[in-house]
Amino acid sequence: MNAAxxxxxxxxxxxxxxxxxxxxxxxxxxxxxxxxLIGPNGAGKTTLFNCxxxxxxxxxxxxxxxxxxxxxxxxxxAAALGIARTFQIVRVFHSMTALENVMxxxxxxxxxxxxxxxxxxxxxxxxxLGHRAEALASEMTVSEQKRLEVARALATDPKLILLDEVMAxxxxxxxxxxxxxxxxxxxxxxxxxxxxxxxxxxMPIADRILxxxxxxxxxxxxxxxxxxxxxVIAAYLGE
Length: 239
Ligand SMILES: Nc1ncnc2c1ncn2[C@@H]1O[C@H](COP(=O)(O)OP(=O)(O)OP(=O)(O)O)[C@@H](O)[C@H]1O
Ligand SMILES: [Mg+2]
What we know:
This protein starts with 6 loop residues before the first strand and ends with a helix. It is built from 9 helices and 10 strands. It has helices spanning 45-52, 75-81, 98-106, 113-126, 142-154, 172-187, 199-202, 223-227, 230-237, and strands at 7-16, 19-29, 34-38, 60-65, 68-69, 83-85, 160-164, 191-195, 208-213, 216-221. The chain binds adenosine-5'-triphosphate and magnesium ion. Adenosine-5'-triphosphate (ATP) binds next to strand 2 and helix 1.
């Protein structure tokens, strides 16, 4: 791990009219780290992703990526710098094949179609969808579409990937596979922030967990620390 953080967030707030969805949030993510982001429904997890990836303009605060201020950047610029994401509600291109969907990501750094195609195939293989390359996205299951989004994000060659509930709706075996996929992403040196309600998917693999409640960060620690934190138990985990 490099000493300088990959991502440094400081005093980040995001308000929608009167509603404060993110409130004075600060944290760092280091190169190659797996960071879980948990908290109750409506706590502001997806909003935070939208701010990090340039989809929302923060109301206050700063976001630095590799030491560079990227507060209020665009999604295109965030992707070019190395921040990739998936969407809580999958956003694949339904009328395109799996391969074409991933090529959209690969085109960010591979201007030639042939190169983009081979990069896309690599990532489809990586997420276990090599055999589905020619399937229409609309014909894939939601679980496959989620993996397809991960492949499309990876094809942009990110340094940080933001995964928004990729384990939702998966069975136990699939959750284990999804956890292993995140670990294999980490082995490539890519950091991830994972929003997840499926605790058995994230607790075993996360280096650190951040907890949001009502838009504010209420805890930041190892999975063991988080699991025993009375504030986290009261707000989210329960007994
Ligand atoms: N574009 C928007 N306009 C207005 N309010 C919004 C917008 N996006 C999110 N919100 C509100 O901000 C709050 C945080 O929502 P967010 O989607 O970030 O929560 P979340 O932690 O991702 O929840 P979940 O676990 O249900 O996905 C909610 O009250 C939500 O209604
Ligand atoms: Mg969400």
